[in-house]
Amino acid sequence: HENDIADVLPALSPAERRKLYRILDIDMLSGIFEYTDEQDAGKYLDEMDLKKASAVLSNMEADSAVEILRICFCSFCLYRLLTSSRYDHLKHCRNLHSSVFQKDKY
Protein backbone atom coordinates (compact mmCIF):
# COMPACT_ATOMS: atom_id res chain seq x y z
CA HIS A 1 0.00 0.00 0.00
CA GLU A 2 1.11 3.51 -0.75
CA ASN A 3 0.99 4.64 2.88
CA ASP A 4 3.16 1.71 3.97
CA ILE A 5 5.75 2.45 1.30
CA ALA A 6 5.77 6.13 2.29
CA ASP A 7 6.48 5.08 5.89
CA VAL A 8 9.47 2.98 4.78
CA LEU A 9 11.11 5.55 2.46
CA PRO A 10 13.10 7.33 5.23
CA ALA A 11 14.65 4.00 6.28
CA LEU A 12 15.92 3.25 2.76
CA SER A 13 19.24 4.47 1.42
CA PRO A 14 19.19 6.89 -1.54
CA ALA A 15 20.35 4.04 -3.82
CA GLU A 16 17.50 1.82 -2.62
CA ARG A 17 14.97 4.62 -3.13
CA ARG A 18 16.26 5.25 -6.67
CA LYS A 19 15.72 1.56 -7.49
CA LEU A 20 12.18 1.87 -6.16
CA TYR A 21 11.52 4.99 -8.25
CA ARG A 22 12.61 3.12 -11.39
CA ILE A 23 10.38 0.12 -10.64
CA LEU A 24 7.16 1.91 -9.68
CA ASP A 25 4.89 3.68 -12.16
CA ILE A 26 3.84 7.32 -11.94
CA ASP A 27 0.42 6.57 -10.43
CA MET A 28 1.91 4.54 -7.59
CA LEU A 29 4.67 7.08 -6.91
CA SER A 30 2.15 9.93 -6.89
CA GLY A 31 0.06 8.02 -4.38
CA ILE A 32 3.11 7.40 -2.20
CA PHE A 33 4.02 11.08 -2.28
CA GLU A 34 0.51 11.94 -1.08
CA TYR A 35 1.48 10.22 2.20
CA THR A 36 5.09 11.41 2.33
CA ASP A 37 6.22 14.15 4.69
CA GLU A 38 6.63 17.34 2.63
CA GLN A 39 10.12 17.98 4.02
CA ASP A 40 11.27 14.55 2.82
CA ALA A 41 9.43 14.82 -0.48
CA GLY A 42 11.77 17.54 -1.77
CA LYS A 43 14.77 15.33 -1.02
CA TYR A 44 13.14 12.34 -2.71
CA LEU A 45 12.28 14.37 -5.82
CA ASP A 46 15.93 15.44 -6.03
CA GLU A 47 16.89 11.77 -6.16
CA MET A 48 14.53 11.09 -9.04
CA ASP A 49 14.96 11.53 -12.77
CA LEU A 50 13.68 15.00 -13.72
CA LYS A 51 11.04 13.72 -16.12
CA LYS A 52 9.66 11.24 -13.60
CA ALA A 53 9.73 13.79 -10.75
CA SER A 54 7.77 16.30 -12.81
CA ALA A 55 5.27 13.62 -13.81
CA VAL A 56 4.82 12.57 -10.17
CA LEU A 57 4.10 16.17 -9.11
CA SER A 58 1.77 16.72 -12.05
CA ASN A 59 -0.16 13.56 -11.21
CA MET A 60 -0.68 14.44 -7.54
CA GLU A 61 -3.63 16.26 -6.02
CA ALA A 62 -2.99 19.97 -6.57
CA ASP A 63 -3.04 20.83 -2.85
CA SER A 64 -0.44 18.19 -2.03
CA ALA A 65 1.84 19.16 -4.92
CA VAL A 66 1.67 22.84 -4.00
CA GLU A 67 2.49 22.05 -0.37
CA ILE A 68 5.57 20.10 -1.45
CA LEU A 69 6.63 22.95 -3.72
CA ARG A 70 6.01 25.43 -0.92
CA ILE A 71 8.13 23.49 1.59
CA CYS A 72 11.05 22.85 -0.74
CA PHE A 73 11.03 26.35 -2.23
CA CYS A 74 14.81 26.80 -1.95
CA SER A 75 15.87 23.34 -3.04
CA PHE A 76 17.65 22.60 -6.27
CA CYS A 77 14.89 20.15 -7.07
CA LEU A 78 12.26 22.86 -7.20
CA TYR A 79 14.51 25.02 -9.35
CA ARG A 80 15.06 22.13 -11.78
CA LEU A 81 11.37 21.36 -12.00
CA LEU A 82 10.02 24.87 -12.36
CA THR A 83 12.62 26.27 -14.75
CA SER A 84 12.57 23.35 -17.15
CA SER A 85 11.09 24.57 -20.42
CA ARG A 86 10.90 20.96 -21.67
CA TYR A 87 8.02 20.17 -19.32
CA ASP A 88 5.18 22.45 -20.37
CA HIS A 89 2.70 20.64 -18.13
CA LEU A 90 4.46 22.23 -15.15
CA LYS A 91 3.73 25.78 -16.29
CA HIS A 92 0.48 25.76 -14.35
CA CYS A 93 2.43 24.65 -11.23
CA ARG A 94 4.93 27.45 -11.74
CA ASN A 95 2.12 30.01 -12.02
CA LEU A 96 0.29 28.58 -9.04
CA HIS A 97 3.51 28.48 -7.03
CA SER A 98 4.26 32.11 -7.88
CA SER A 99 0.79 33.24 -6.86
CA VAL A 100 1.04 31.38 -3.54
CA PHE A 101 4.33 33.05 -2.67
CA GLN A 102 3.16 36.49 -3.80
CA LYS A 103 0.28 36.23 -1.30
CA ASP A 104 2.59 35.11 1.52
CA LYS A 105 5.05 37.99 1.07
CA TYR A 106 2.94 40.59 2.80
Structure write-up:
- By secondary structure, this protein is an all-alpha fold.
- It is 75% helix and 0% strand.
- It is globular and about 35 Å long.
Which features would summarize this protein structure in a list?
75% helix; 8 helices; globular; mainly alpha; 106 residues
Number of helices: 8
- Measured between the Cα atoms of the first and last residue, the distance is 41 Å
**Helix and strand composition category:** mainly alpha
Compute the number of strand runs: 0
Radius of gyration equals 13 Å
Quickly describe the structure.
This protein is an all-alpha fold and 106 residues long. Helix 3 crosses helix 5 and helix 4 packs across helix 6. It is globular.
Question: Strands, helices and their partners?
Answer:
Elements: H1 2-8, H2 14-23, H3 26-35, H4 38-47, H5 50-59, H6 62-71, H7 76-83, H8 91-105
